[in-house]
Predict the 3D structure of the following.
Amino acid sequence: MNLVYLLRRLVTFLLIVWVAASINFIIPRLAPGDPVAAMLGRMSQQGASVAGSAQIIESYRQQFGLDEPVTIQYLKYLAALARFDLGLSLSNFPTPVTTIIMRALPWTIGLLIIATLLAFSIGTLLGALLVWRSTPAAARTLLPLLTVLAAIPYYLLAIILLYLLAFRFNLFPVGGTTRIGSANELSLSMVLDVAHHSVLPALSIVLSAVGGWMLGMRAMMVGVIGADYLTLAEAKGLKQRRIFLRYALRNAILPQITGLAISLGSIVSGAVLVEVIFSYPGVGFLLYRAIQNADYTLIQGITFFLVLSVGIAILILDLVYPLLDPRITYQRR
Amino acid sequence: MKKKISVLGLGLLLIALLLTSCRPATTPQVIESTPRTVEVTRIVAGTPETIIITVEPEMPTPEPVDPERARTLILGFEGGQVASPDIANPFIPARWPMISAGLHQAVFESLFYLNYETGEIQPWQAESYSFNDDYTELAIKIRPGVEWSDGQPFTARDVAFTINMLKDNPTLINGPAMEQWVEAAEVVDDSTVRITLTAPHPRFVLDFLSVQVWGSIIVMPEHIWKDQDPTTFKNLDLEKGWPVATGPYRLTQASSTEFSYERRDDWWAAKTGFHALPAPEKLIFIEQGTEDRRAAMLSENQVDGLPALGLGAYRVAQARNPNVVAWLPEPPYAWIDPCPFYFEFNTTVQPWDDPEMRWAVSYAIDKEKLADLTNEGSGLTAQFLFSTYGALSSLLEKNQALFEQYPVMEYNPEKAIEIIESKGYTRGAGGFFVGPDGQPLTLEIMGQTPSEGGVAWGISASLFTEYLAAVGIQVTPKLLSVSAYQDAASLGDFEARQAWLCGSVTDPYTTLNAFHANRAVPVGERTDYDKGAGRWVNEEYSAIVDQVAQLEPGDPHIDELFTQALEIFLRELPAFGLYQQVRIVPYTSTYWTNWPTSQNNYIHPPNWWMTTHQFLIELQPASQTASR
């Protein structure tokens, strides 16, 4: 790996972050709506009278700098971003954006990392098995049925699972992260409780994602199946299992790894519908609320995290690729 | 392969472990037992004999009530997950939804509480209030013995401090209102505060201090707040015991989806013998989630009450759990929320500046059908922008003659067409009317997106389009997010809109005042979006409203002034009522009883308002085995 390539990638990364951050700045402001009006509006929906709201809104607009020219706001925004200062949330003033995101992030990351990795492993394995000649014919006919689940949106699956497993058969809780009324101390029972509550949300995401990974892997495997080195391996007398894992799967899996990296990068945006259905306090719901409330700083903060995280994931992937597949090199020829 | 299988196997093992560790919810069952008859053959003196025996089934031992659950009251809260569950300052916008997740129901108290069922203002932290002759001075006497949760006495100094703090900070909620109405708030002695008003306001206590709708100004402890910046002070620090308040519960745990409270046995009301300690020792408010989740939790008694439930979901819950109750015992089950829906015109936009054209729109809409379709078949129309509460309903009853003269509830599309044609419109392409200037007759109706405001908004939008198309008006529904909707309403950036009005409850002034000419700021300038925003100006009407403002609620002259105002309003029709906001507020009596219902109507039932406090302290445990 040469230094020039590394530097080029870093510069590209920074460029990507800057462009994305600019888009994140512009788009919320294009949509109609005012953050403070939104907050007061939500309250009046509960019947709370907000007399003199016009005056309150004007004062807050000044306080948040929303009445300044857009270019000034943009430059201030970029400067703050460079210092990693995401500012204060408009709809949750005076709480800082970072505090709000950090509260929700562990739940999102915990749930989605496990769900994504599970879906990836199961999907990839099954996809590879679909094409492998030793797989029994029965399995090869039945497995594609899993792709039916992929066609069902994950939030619909969530409701079905909620109805079946939580409502009709009482196997899992109806939502939330812990049992109602349980104390928040870290202990084994709390961890098990959280795990128990995460099964349904995770399951709905896994079931709907497995199909996609499976099809992708199958396509890659088909390309590898006829390869000469597989014939050689068989001729050498290696066990089927070893050929499957170390010769076939390993060579076919590379594009899947790219998909995985991007998937993992984007989990910080959460899975909003699952979070709504299961009352799971993740970043997805936060972003959804922030958009409803026209909370510019919170939207910018979350999307900045997202951009950063996907950018870093791809950067790491790019740098790690040659390690995964020695044939890949970035030398200029 | 081995690795993958062992990973899978481990996963399955984990899942199995979790399955076994879960405890299915226990529902105390209604036990049915009928005696059975059994044939038995016995040998009597050497001869087999068959007799019939009646067997009483063994009474199964009743399922033990979980003592922890039996002493806990669990309620749902609205508003979704709380992004920042560390704000207990009731004066900043970020207070919501956390404030109605238990804080203003159980921790904070109000000086007075308005009871919708009796129509009376109940003094609580205060003992009484009195106005001077011209309603420019208000004296409030504080009840002796009221104490803060840190032991300090609650005095007039705290009341005066809070009002002055609001007056001096116009970004605080109710700040502008205090700035507008309060000249000064002074301490006369420890138990008396005198508020001098800038203008006569006989409804000052009703409007600001007695939870007319949802909440009121909450008095804060001067000794804690005097050194804080009220615009950024969060007022939450569990270790310090903040928020310091006078209510019977203290906050013990706060997260995005759950808030826990513990009863304070040193509550001032119990100490002074004013009121017994509330029965629930622990209080939990959880994020209520989607309808499915709510129905499931209610059926399983995982919650004791919820802020709202749709009709279908309520039926499901009731079928599964016979202990579920709502305000009414039969359909529509619902309680009437004090914020009826209405249809408003921007009277600065042509041709809707013409009262007759507005009447045409009113004739074109079948309000009964609209009410039913937007409420799962059991809606109630709103004849005027009033909820159907006792005092207001009888006021409308007295004015039936006016409603006959101005039939605002009538569905008469032919009449609508007649009016439009009389204005010189002719039918054009597609059956829509075209004006004498060649411009088509269009109307843009603003509403909220169903995903935020609720399904009813989408239904209304399609119905308006249909009804008005039938009379030749081309409708463009403009469904916006809540924030955009409020903004547009405030700035007058709409042609017509569906809206709701949280106005009068016992006295007609608030609703009448929602259409005062002083709200008619030019389009592009902001006015309060939650009152009339159609920029309607009628000096005669406004003068009458000003007269009502000077009279104390209950004054007999208000009735005749109301009739005069109503006549002008109906004649001009800047807005017309659509349907009541009905809400099923479900409770379950499995663990707690004495819920407010229409048959036990000692107070109104909302559990997301400050008045929840008044029935929280009256609940009784259902089971005798529950520890107190």
